[in-house]
Structure prediction request, 482 residues.
Amino acid sequence: MKLSLLLPEIILFCGAILLLMLDIFFNKKNQKFQFFSHLYTLIIAGLALSFAVKGFGAPQKYFNEMLNSNAIISLLKCIIISTLTIIILVSVRYIFTLEKYSSEYLALLLISTAGGLIMISSNNFLVFYLGLELQALSLYLLASFNTKSAQSSEAGIKYFILGSLASGILLFGISLIYGFSGSTNFDNIYQFISKLKPEEIPAGLVFGTILVATAMFFKTSAAPFHMWAPDVYQGAPTAVLAFFGTAIKFTAVSALIIIASKFAWVILSKIVILVGLLSIIVGSLGAIFQKNIKRLLAFSSIGHLGFIFIGVANFDKNSVAIAIFYLTIYALISLGVFSFLTIISSNSGNESDHENEVIFNINSLSGLYKTNPVMAISLTTLLFSSAGIPPLAGFFSKFFILRNAISNGLIYIAVIAVIVSTISAFYYLRIIKIIYFDEPADKIQLEDYGNTRLIIGLSALLNIALIIWIEPIINIIKRFIE
Prediction:
């Protein structure tokens, strides 16, 4: 057993437990414990990242071949932990607002991330389910963390009920796969399927694989399994939403790609294409009618998932590399946009549900360019990149996805995606118009948190600068893939 390969997960989980223990003994005695807990969590994330970097190397299997380690998994771990570190930095305001609950919030972030890392490292369905539930249980609590908000409690309950349903579907699918293949190990299942012609694959195994994919579609909020996402995005605390929209989304989609590319591509390729196309349509058209920024971003994330699924449908090295690149660019855009949401506050100082409805209404951004031009330009850059406007990184990520789809014979799918994506540019342009041409609404103020503003600015700059290194980055990802 090579315990060193599991050190990032161990550090995050044990760090969370130790933080809770320290909170019990010192929080009531020390008024500045929030400062310590925040710094401590950053150190834990940094240690986990350093050991994740050391994981690059030859492919290895450990713990009785239940866990897997290779270059691409190590790269994904590094991206996820880096995202967690940024989320901790932008959560400063929320941490100090929580006061006595700040340690629990930070511990749940660490535990959830540890579960996600186990999930993408798994080589066995039992370990995969363990990682998935370790992550999900933390997320249910995080979604409802704002106990003073009825919307937050509603978001947590909805997420818990639908997440439990998805977990049940996943377990049923795993049981069918085990029953018809005789194993829960990914490699053994692949060897079993590879000996058969497509028409000889048992119907029970096909159905089980589809159920597993369906559960993951629920977890990633892909259409038509997206019904929970807008409500949870709207009700969840803003800092938690930043974690949901970046690290968790990246982890869940990466895990689905890893499972499908290991053994299920023969069964799932057409289903993934169909779900991808539906996600683009639902995400693009659904966002047009939204007035709440959080709900709009929920539908936007669904549309981005559609592009990823279309790009990865063939599950070859090139497709997976482009999908991971798209995921990385989406995570970068989301970090900037969700970080911006965390510094929005009401001029009245009231944080009630009604007040949140007002400040997260799209019209609350009226005249932002006149009151805060730097943040307005940064947000505009991120929104244009998300819409796929050239020459920003978001445009090239979509371009490579569509080019790959066309080269694999999905011409009609690519044409539909382009048309619907063009329609989706409407709701981004509507926000830009409100920011630059409407009179200031004087409903919101932007908190003066230098670290968060820096992250927003850097995210916008990277969306411009990355166009120079797009090809090298994709080639590097290809070299990491086995």
Remarks:
- DSSP finds 20 helices and four strands in the chain.
- The first helix runs from residue 7 to 26.
- Residues 13 and 245 are 21 Å apart (CA to CA).
- The chain has a mean pLDDT of 87.
